[in-house]
Amino acid sequence: MTRIRLATPSDIPLMHSLVHALAEFEREPHSVEITEEQLLRDGFGAHPYYECLIAEEDGVPAGFALYFPIYSTWQGPSLHLEDLFVLPEFRGRGVGKALLNQVAAAAVKRGCARLQWDVLDWNQPAIDFYHSIGATMLGDWRRMRMTGDALKALGAASEVTA
Amino acid sequence: MTRIRLATPSDIPLMHSLVHALAEFEREPHSVEITEEQLLRDGFGAHPYYECLIAEEDGVPAGFALYFPIYSTWQGPSLHLEDLFVLPEFRGRGVGKALLNQVAAAAVKRGCARLQWDVLDWNQPAIDFYHSIGATMLGDWRRMRMTGDALKALGAASEVTA
């Protein structure tokens, strides 16, 4: 039986291992720099950056969903689902759907007009699943990112006049 | 001369008009549902959803940038730039760059490892500009979204066991 529950600080080692397992699946196993200490500080401090749900099958951890509030200047407060992952041995039992149901319920409860997430364009099983539950793919948007020295250089060129 | 300053509640009508102008540019003029009251409540209440910078050229509003904190389970706290827009008559003067400098400075100041934003795949001038300042395009991610009745139906299927 699938049970979905909110993560607690004692789940941090589990969450850390699930984040690594998801990165392996996404073919970027070496991109995870976050530590258990950071996950604990950022998720369970005075101003949490995220919330996390743990899925269990008969008491055994089977997957997780991690999300946080964002903002749309067209529709207002929204929710972004950053990670959704089910361990391979628990797939095909509706665990991912159960997690998504719960995240959607959280979005509705907070009055969010939108729930959004990103999917890898080669992950066709996931794309088919998302379409089957009524999600829309925004095909014409691409993500840009700046990190490290490029980000610092860009910021250093600012002249604060505020 | 370009001046970048933090938006204040008195900028709400200006911000609302700039949001509409950006939606026109993005070929979705009818997608803006947000009201001035919502922008005020969400940006200037006890727990603001976003921050906004206004660019002025010789005291005349020329553009804006709107951003908020997000979270990466690989790198920790990050910043998402939701809107960046310069009015047509002020383009080509470095106003967008000045806004981006300031957003990057905010990201660095908060210890963010990443600054990210989205770009329309047909907006080649913007893509070229972003590449020129050191940003990377993540070509293999696509955005999924659920809204309205589909979102409510998904949430209604949840069984809260937390």
Notes on the protein architecture:
2 copies of one chain form a homodimer. The first copy, chain A, is of the alpha+beta class and 162 residues long. Chain A has one domain: 3-Layer(aba) Sandwich (Aminopeptidase). In chain A, 35% of the residues lie in helices and 33% in strands. The first copy, chain A, is built from 5 helices and 7 strands. A 5-stranded mixed sheet of chain A has the order 1-2-3-4-5, with helices on both faces. Chain A is globular and about 55 Å long. The mean pLDDT of chain A is 94. Chains A and B meet through strand 1, helix 1, helix 2, strand 3 and strand 4 of A and strand 1, helix 1, helix 2, strand 3 and strand 4 of B. Strand 6 of chain A pairs antiparallel with strand 7 (141-147) of chain B, so a sheet runs across the interface.
Put the structure in a nutshell.
2 copies of one chain form a homodimer. With 162 residues, chain A is of the alpha+beta class.
Element layout with pairings:
2 copies of one chain form a homodimer.
Chain A: E1 2-6, H1 12-25, H2 36-44, E2 51-57, E3 60-72, E4 76-86, H3 95-109, E5 114-120, H4 124-132, E6 136-138, E7 141-147, H5 148-156
Parallel strand pairs in A: 4-5
Antiparallel strand pairs in A: 1-2, 2-3, 3-4
Structural shape of chain A: globular
Largest sheet strand order of chain A: 1-2-3-4-5
How would you name the oligomeric state of the polypeptide chains in this document? homodimer
Assigned CATH superfamily of chain A? Gcn5-related N-acetyltransferase (GNAT)
| Number of contiguous helices of chain A | 5
**How many individual domains of chain A?**
1
Q: What's the CATH class label of chain A? A: Alpha Beta
Largest interface: A-B, 84 and 84 residues
Structural class of chain A: alpha+beta
Q: How many E strands of chain A?
A: 7
- What is the ordering of alpha helices and beta strands of chain A? EHHEEEHEHEEH
Query: Taking Cα atoms only, what radius of gyration of chain A do you get, to the nearest Å?
Result: 17 Å
Largest sheet of chain A: 5 strands, mixed
Outline the low-pLDDT stretches of chain A.
none
CATH architecture of chain A: 3-Layer(aba) Sandwich
Query: Helix coverage percent of residues of chain A?
Result: 25-40%
CATH overall fold name of chain A: Aminopeptidase
